[in-house]
Automatic annotation (TrEMBL):
One of its GO terms (molecular function) is carbohydrate binding. GO terms for biological process: transmembrane transport. It comes from the Bacteria. The keyword Signal applies. This is C4-dicarboxylate ABC transporter substrate-binding protein.
């Protein structure tokens, strides 16, 4: 009888522990606007898998790619209220709330993806993350990169004047809006998933994008001129709701920050390896790729710089750091 009682007590204790562990488990919902095949989505998935393993199942990251949770503006609102736990989003949306982040999109701030990764891990960019809790209600966990920005156009672009008056799909935030306004283009915001059809029906004449989006969304089927300007980097930022963050133990915060930064950092090497192959595939599909440098844009770049030195004081410090980056 005593043995039976002891066995029942042991079973009850084990069951209580299991129930307790289950009660502690938390699903962290993470949103993105890019497709599930995109490198950012894959980094989010890998981060979630490692977090689940490291936390012993305490945290399970559920990834929602392709804008399933709405636009980035909508997701940022959800982060602020705590309705969404995490997001990997373009730093562009953050720049809409905190102007200093617009400095990261300065034309020709860096030459390539490798330099972008170095600068984003530098003192100025990392220090900018400290502004986010007070100004945007979110915690910045780290940065990653996409491919360098270029243009895919459905019209010949042998001269910068050809861009004047054209409808170019952009991510709608001030640094890029100013860049295309100075070029005389009509900036046309729309979800990235709508661009394929928009190029086909003439709703837009071109798109500000990178090689990965051009290839994975098959945009090259609708426009045959790639202006390989590499005119801006386009960072992704890992964010967590400030409300959710405040409820986490310190050791869990450290683990989530560490793993988010780790997997966002892997994007630099991934893009370095993939860009050449992606470009080759696009060219094999019959698309003309025309490399151009800063001189192509004339005095537009200086005009942009004068505007943004006033809007984003961090730009001056970023320029100084960028000058010392390894080639």
């Amino acid at each position: 009888m005593k043995k039976t009682t002891k066995l029942l007590c042991a079973l009850c204790s084990a069951a209580a522990l299991l129930l307790s562990a289950g009660a502690m488990a938390k699903d962290l919902r993470l949103g993105l606007i890019v497709p599930g095949t995109h490198a950012w989505s894959q980094a989010a998935q890998a981060m979630g898998e490692e977090l689940k393993e490291r936390s012993g199942g305490k945290y399970d990251v559920v990834v929602f790619p392709a804008g399933q949770l709405g636009s980035e503006a909508r997701m940022l609102q959800q982060l602020q209220t705590g309705a969404l736990d995490m997001a990997f989003m373009t730093t562009a949306e953050v720049a809409n709330r905190v102007p200093d982040f617009g400095a990261l999109f300065a034309p020709y701030l860096v030459h390539d993806v490798a330099q972008a990764g170095q600068l984003l891990n530098g003192k100025t960019a990392q220090g900018m993350l400290d502004q986010l809790p007070a100004k945007a209600g979110v915690v910045g966990l780290g940065y990653g990169v996409a491919g360098m920005r270029l243009m895919l156009n459905a019209f010949p672009t042998d001269d910068v004047k050809a861009i004047n008056g054209r409808k170019i799909r952009i991510t709608p935030f001030p640094p890029v809006q100013d860049f295309y306004r100075l070029l005389g283009a009509a900036s046309t915001p729309m979800p990235v998933t709508d661009v394929y059809d928009a190029l086909a029906n003439g709703q837009v004449d071109g798109v500000d994008a990178d090689l990965e989006l051009i290839w994975k969304l098959r945009l090259y089927e609708r426009a045959k001129t790639v202006l390989q300007s590499n005119h801006m980097m386009f960072p992704v930022i890992g964010l967590m709701s400030g409300r959710v963050w405040a409820q986490l133990p310190q050791e869990d915060r450290s683990m989530i920050r560490e793993l988010t930064r780790k997997h966002l950092d892997t994007l630099t090497a991934d893009y370095e390896k993939s860009e050449a192959d992606t470009q080759a595939s696009i060219e094999q599909a019959g698309v003309k790729v025309t490399p151009v440098g800063p001189e192509f844009f004339g005095d537009t770049l200086q005009q942009w710089e004068e505007i943004w030195l006033k809007k984003a004081p961090a730009l001056a410090d970023l320029r100084r750091e960028a000058a010392d980056l390894k080639p």
